[in-house]
Amino acid sequence: xxxxxxxxxxxxxxxxxxxxxxxxxxxxxxxxxxxxxxxxxxxxxxxxxxxxxxxxxxxxxxxxxxxxxxxxxxxxxxxxxxxxxxxxxxxxxxxxxxxxxxxxxxxxxxxxxxxxxxxxxxxxxxxxxxxxxxxxxxxxxxxxxxxxxxxxxxxxxxxxxxxxxxxxxxxxxxxxxxxxxxxxxxxxxxxxxxxxxxxxxxxxxxxxxxxxxxxxxxxxxxxxxxxxxxxxxxxxxxxxxxxxxxxxxxxxxxxxxxxxxxxxxxxxxxxxxxxxxxxxxxxxxxxxxxxxxxxxxxxxxxxxxxxxxxxxxxxxxxxxxxxxxxxxxxxxxxxxxxxxxxxxxxxxxxxxxxxxxxxxxxxxxxxxxxxxxxxxxxxxxxxxxxxxxxxxxxxxxxxxxxxxxxxxxxxxxxxxxxxxxxxxxxxxxxxxxxxxxxxxx
Length: 441
What we know:
Helix content is 33%, strand content 24%. It has 441 residues and is an alpha/beta fold.
């Protein structure tokens, strides 16, 4: 029996993948340990979306080079970055025994056994297939007690010019409805209160049942999951402005257990930059999509992504982004500094000509706007009562929970407050980070 430690980097999908890895390995007789020094095998589940994800893996390898002696521990590199990493890593770091991409995880029990039997090196295994692990129930070793996630599709056909995902995750593949529902019921039966459906562009989900030819799109899947699991709050990520449509909005509006929150990345408020990014929409398209959402669901929380410092982004381009943020007042903004990735169109056609200093300055400006907008939105809730699911200890005797718009609220618990309990909180104070209040009966 191998003792295995796994480290996960990157997005929610990588966390889902790690749970699959752990399930496969546990069912083949391996066990998991919380720290690397106790492990026989260390798995680094890597991310390739940004260069810092790439760098973190090499930082860990350099650290292990100082710690691992006489081949007492072995490392497997998994995840998106595995598709890109050069086999030179085997000679630079002899304790690395295998490299596997996300389509190869069924081979991990065999690889672990080969390592245990003394094979010095396996190989780099990179496969492009439609593997969705629909028959594997995740171990949920890494999940909290409240929220669990299901990967319903993988890969991407969009080919945004800055994005490496189509090269590391492959083309779009969707999981069958029955296996999604089976896992959703397992989540519900194990006491979770919230389910996140995950896909790179989840609105493009589309699956045809080979038995009867019936096709289910994302609106249909969302309705099916919500109706099948009425005890669960349902949310999903991530959406795209050209595929998030009115049919999905209507399903959210008509199902009380679907959370009023959508992650809809903008990236830039400049039409010129959006075209260079190959996003498939312009600013006016995005503005109309936001208007449609807010018309049908006025209290919808809209979270966006903004990328600063894309190739040739001028002050005018950046100012256009700032003006759109001021106009649309997103509930939250994830801020990214452009990072050139190999294999992408940007790497072949454009120059990363915005300095890191300028990128940092622009990111700080967006961050300040985000905090101002969110503070105003949270202050508007003072003296209102909201329902949250209690998730656990925050700090200094306070607990925290999230509401149906996924906003964090802190509160002093009662003596009988329990994790996953519904509590009503009257909001008393607010900061740009969260709201705080008191439990009311």
